[in-house]
Write a structure and sequence with these properties.
Length: 178
């Protein structure tokens, strides 16, 4: 089990991340998520930095607004099999259904796909800020909420499957009652 925060996931699948880049279109840069007006894109939900800080606790802010990664195995959503839907913690846009979850003992929440038009992608800045690892070989695809720009996690190849590897902290869960 990794105990590092942001580098654990990067090292976890860096050998397959290049394939994710080839398979996933990039719609916007991650830096635009903090200042959407600077590139002409305006999110449906916009807040000042002070408003984000009042809405989110320190860990939530670190992940959703500073594009960090939660510690592996730190969130109960990673192993939860409850039926329901998952929404962005930043704006409550429904993004994932529990029926799309893939339970893996990797430490994060995995989904086969998202609701249509709910996720924007960007190239992860990586340790050198250029979207590649220190050897210039691999890029990671970040997943962001399309309504508020909050960082959700990454889209990666895991055991040959392209999956959304999501921070549980980025999500709110609503159980389906039957």
């Amino acid at each position: 089990m990794h105990t590092k925060t942001s580098t654990g996931r990067r090292f976890f699948l860096k050998a397959s991340a290049l394939s994710a880049v080839a398979l996933t279109p990039s719609f916007k840069s991650a830096t635009a998520a903090t200042s959407s007006a600077s590139n002409g894109f305006t999110y449906e939900v916009t807040r000042t930095d002070d408003e984000w800080h009042s809405l989110l606790n320190d860990e939530e802010y670190r992940i959703l607004r500073d594009f960090k990664t939660e510690k592996a195995h730190s969130h109960p959503y990673a192993v939860s099999t409850d039926n329901g839907s998952y929404a962005c913690r930043g704006c409550d846009l429904e993004i994932y259904e529990s029926s799309w979850k893939v339970i893996l003992d990797k430490g994060w929440v995995f989904f086969k796909h998202a609701q249509p038009d709910s996720v924007l992608t960007s190239i992860d800045g990586g340790p050198n800020g250029e979207g590649v690892d220190s050897q210039g070989r691999f890029a990671m695809i970040e997943a962001h909420c399309r309504r508020c720009g909050s960082h959700l996690g990454h889209i990666l190849l895991v055991d040959g499957d392209l999956l959304h590897c999501i921070n549980g902290t980025s999500l709110n869960f609503t159980e389906t009652t039957t």
